[in-house]
Amino acid sequence: MNTKLLMIISFLFYLSWRKASDSFLLFCALFAAGLCVCVMIYRMENTRIAADDDAD
């Protein structure tokens, strides 16, 4: 998944939640933000592993 796309989606859900005050939209915004953080951590770990494999 693309991290920037997830950040944009979570921001759009957040803006929708602010306008409509629907708890489901807040859940979607928080879920997308959490998924964005997980993707960032996953990519950082895979980059480090790939760099370690190249050193051998």
Features of this protein?
transmembrane; 2 helices; rod-shaped; transmembrane helix; membrane; 56 residues; mainly alpha
Furnish the topology, listing elements before pairings.
Blueprint: H1 3-20, H2 23-55
Give structural notes.
91% of the residues lie in helices and 0% in strands. It has two helices and no strands. The chain has one domain. The protein has 56 residues and is an all-alpha fold.
Unreliable spans: none
Q: What composes the largest sheet?
A: none
Number of helices: 2
Helix coverage percent of residues? over 70%
Query: What percentage of the residues does DSSP assign to strands (E)?
Result: under 5%
Compute the gyration radius: what is it? Answer: 16 Å
**pLDDT average, as an integer?**
83
Output the helix-strand order.
HH
Total of domains: 1
Category by helix and strand content: mainly alpha
